[in-house]
Amino acid sequence: MSSSVFEYAPAPESRSIVDIAPSYGLFVDGEFVDGTGEPLKSVNPATEEVLTEVATASEADVDRAVRAARRAFDKVWGPMRPADRGKYLFRIARLLQERAREFAVLESLDNGKPIRESRDVDVPLAAAHFFYHAGWADKLDHAGLGPAPRPLGVAGQVIPWNFPLLMLAWKVAPALATGNTVVLKPAETTPLTALLFAEVCRRADLPPGVVNIVTGAGETGRAVVEHGDVDKVAFTGSTEVGKSIARAVAGTRKKVTLELGGKAANIVFDDAPIDQAVEGIVQGIFFNQGHVCCAGSRLLVQESIHDEVIASLQRRIGTLRVGDPLDKNTDIGAINSAEQLARIRELSDIGEAEGAERWQPACDLPERGFWFPPTVFTNVSPAHRIARDEVFGPVLSVLTFRTPDEAVAKANNTTYGLSAGIWTEKGSRILKIANQLRAGVIWANTFNKFDPTSPFGGYKQSGYGREGGRHGLAAYLKGHDA
Amino acid sequence: MSSDRLAVRKTYKLYVNGAFPRSESGRTYEVTDAKGHFLANAARASRKDARDAVVAARAAFRKWSGTTAYNRGQVLYRVAEVMEGRHVQFCEEVAQSEGLSSSKARAAVDAAIDRWVWYAGWTDKLAAVLGGANPVAGPYFDFSMPEPTGVVAVLAPQQSSLLGLVSVLAPVLATGSTAVVVTSKERPLPAITLAEVLATSDVPGGVVNLLTGDAEELGTWLAEHADVDAIDLTGAPAGRAMEFEREAAGTVKRVLRPPATEPDWTADPGLSRMTPFLETKTVWHPIGV
């Protein structure tokens, strides 16, 4: 990037730490086995290089995995002393920490996210989730979730491609801590860290069948969700698929949690510290290439400071480094797939066609791979598609407001309700606006912060149920919804 | 009072937005007692009535959810007080509707009044029981609190005309949501009398809307309504709950599934009817920056 204030020499993290096999099977009942579906290829989105071939689980394979999970639940994991279940989770947390670098490099290779994020956010948080939940395993009686809480049984879990290992941790750790066993389907474009996690389960001597990993695409996910012997469905992904899951489980006994899409408002008041707010806006929308369900994709800026904020934002975006995910200086990595890139391009083109103004910094993108520059749309109206639809990419839509009431009305003018941001120096205003926003996570003078102790999840069509904290346990226990 | 005085009979209507309208459709249906004797003509709510009720409930939500927990508790307690004053009338209607002996009817009415008192005491304790500070690994103050989910459609139990109704309605109000209730189809009269209590108990108009009629048709319309946030399927007609749940999926509604058979409403409900209609909001703020 020629416009940068400083030029940096490339500082690539070595990929020699990972050893990717030419092909991978499913992880069922403690063993790697062949899948009977058509294998799929996992691609490095930064280079389009095929990394490996991964098995696809058919309905019969999923059935085998569910039966293994049921056996493990009935015979081993269910009857086990809770303190011992906790110790297995502590072991897993430690193994993740010990192999953190390997997981980070593999995640960046398979997903395209910058190594700075996989190394400093995804992997440490995944380990933290196991460490946190490990401690709950023998303390559930004290969680305020009723006397003698009981596990549900077999949890079927389907996770997205934006935080492959971290979403696995969000799902697997609370399920195991509460005494359930798991059949997990990773996303079809990012299965590799889940398969490395299977290896960690073996190293931890986790009893066979407690964790089963079935790779594949939508059909495999459907087989997991619809299997008659699954007691609990946990899904993170698009609102559209979430709705079809809610339909599929209607009339069954299955307990469901859905963590779906978002279109978060990031509200900047005229008394906000502009430099801090600009950092927060950048972190809000460009973290993980904007492949974040809680991304601050709608910037609501008070009219009086609009020009100042936009100028400062553009200056800051001009210093972002887009490129090789394994380069430690990289801020924005590759778009996860050709399909996602096409969607981002389509919605951006619609934004322009509907009358919004597109701004992108001068920025050299690599020739191969899937790339999209950081993008800001101004002159966006609340009716524009880019103000309503989840883009799931590095695309920010800027709207303005004059009064706090107008900010709240615009922020809540969405079918989603996952997260929101507030930037102001006035504490009483933060608390008032936070009360009025219909969203599950409110970041005030910060954005995109996550922690295993902190419940995460949406209002409205962003889904239901919470992950993390005491609240997250309820989703995996009988009869407890709080 | 002279025994040959001709009684003034009551017209049973809907309760929507604090008023007692007839169904806009003009439809009514005959309500009989447990032995089949005619009691009254009840309004049979239409799709338009259901939509009007949702509009009223949505409009009432902001104020009701913003009322202090202490104040909401007092309003719920006031409902119990006003019900107590109509004790005899409720006993008579419940006995007629459900075919109960007068002592059993009295027990049901007593329990219904006491249930309002129980929920009245919950309003200002939920946040402490269900929320709290989260010890995140960084310089942030982070806390979670329960918030009402919004407009809740309630298909009230078909058997227990008053105690069952109060048991499904009071938790929705206690948590700060507003309600559109479809009453028992065959036993709707105690519900309308309850509406008269609500109308005189400081419950703001629109917070509770009661529709008499057929949950079979009203349930479909409410399950698919885009401005309903949650649906309680307790009184869904046999075999229809699955379909309603499917329709509710279209807007990701929170769904409280029906029990296999109508439960014993005298049992301690715990939190089980409040938590399904609560969201958890988590707020982060930096410390020291």
Automatic annotation (TrEMBL), chain A:
Keyword Oxidoreductase part of the UniProt annotation: yes
Record keywords, A-Z: Oxidoreductase
PROSITE patterns (alphabetical): ALDEHYDE_DEHYDR_GLU (PS00687)
Aldehyde dehydrogenase domain: residues covered: 32-478
InterPro entries: Ald_DH/histidinol_DH, Ald_DH_C, Ald_DH_CS_GLU, Ald_DH_N, Aldehyde_DH_dom
Active site: 259
Family annotation (Gene3D superfamilies): Aldehyde Dehydrogenase, Chain A, domain 1, Aldehyde Dehydrogenase, Chain A, domain 2
Family membership noted in the UniProt record: Belongs to the aldehyde dehydrogenase family.
Protein name, entry field: Acyl-CoA reductase
Organism: Blastococcus tunisiensis
Automatic annotation (TrEMBL), chain B:
Gene3D superfamilies: Aldehyde Dehydrogenase, Chain A, domain 1
Keyword annotations of the record: Oxidoreductase
Residues annotated as domain Aldehyde dehydrogenase: 24-255
GO MF annotation terms: oxidoreductase activity
Signal peptide limits: none
Protein name: Aldehyde dehydrogenase family protein
